[in-house]
Amino acid sequence: MQAHETVDDSQLMIRVATGDKDALCKLIDHWEKPLGSFIYRYVQNREATCELVQETFVRIYEARDRFKRDMKFSSWLFKIASNLCKNYYRWRSRHPEDLIGDDEIEPSSDCACDLSRPDEDPSEILSRREDAAKIEELVGSMPHQLKVALLLHYYQDLSYKEIAATIGCSERGVETRLYRARAWLSKQLEHGNEEKCCHRFFAFTGLR
């Protein structure tokens, strides 16, 4: 389930900027779950996800003086988180022997689509779950700019404007990144059959 920006989020962040820690706790309550979902889908590691969620909110508090009244809190939050995720990937590529936790990928528990039906053949259930795991694995290995745009749009339901503010490009640039992300998935899954690829991908994000 996606969390949506509320008017109170920006107001709470303004209070955080004055040192109001109760306001920070309210922001954490509202955004911890969607933030964790975004980070897990990016890094595919549960322990790293927990650490990066905590680090994101630490950075939010440390940078509280830089929050502006006209900012969207969601864009600021995910910008900080995506940078931390990118840095984690760089660290992981340089220190594979120090990886924490288990990187085994399985369908996310917050997936909006029920992967099984009472009347479905067990082999079909297994196939669908394997597909879901494969898609999440591919999303995890996608280039950074494409992956962030894809996750924020399809999993966090952010608008093009919010995503543009997060990744530092125009709304047209977001549209281009999403097109390239779908094409990249299509190439990996169906050797160019983008329509079939998108049908499978959207099934697992609950969009169709």
Kindly describe this structure:
- With about 210 residues, the protein is mostly helical.
- It is about 70% helix and about 0% strand.
- It has two domains: about 1-105, RNA polymerase sigma factor, region 2, helix turn helix motif (Rna Polymerase Sigma Factor, Chain: A, Orthogonal Bundle), CATH 1.10.1740; about 115-208, Arc Repressor Mutant, subunit A, CATH 1.10.10.10.
- The longest helix has 23 residues, at about 20-45.
Gyration radius, rounded: 18 Å
Number of E-type strands? 0
> Segments where pLDDT lies below 50 for 5+ residues?
104-118
Q: How helical, in percent, are the residues? A: 55-70%
Shape: globular
Q: What number is the mean pLDDT?
A: 77
Could you give me the name of the CATH homologous superfamily of the largest domain?
RNA polymerase sigma factor, region 2, helix turn helix motif
CATH architecture title of the largest domain: Orthogonal Bundle
Distance between the termini: 15 Å
Q: What letter string, H or E per element, gives the SSE order?
A: HHHHHHHHH
| Domain unit count | 2
Put simply, the count of helices is 9
What descriptive keywords fit this protein?
208 residues, mainly alpha, Rna Polymerase Sigma Factor, Chain: A, Arc Repressor Mutant, subunit A, 9 helices, globular
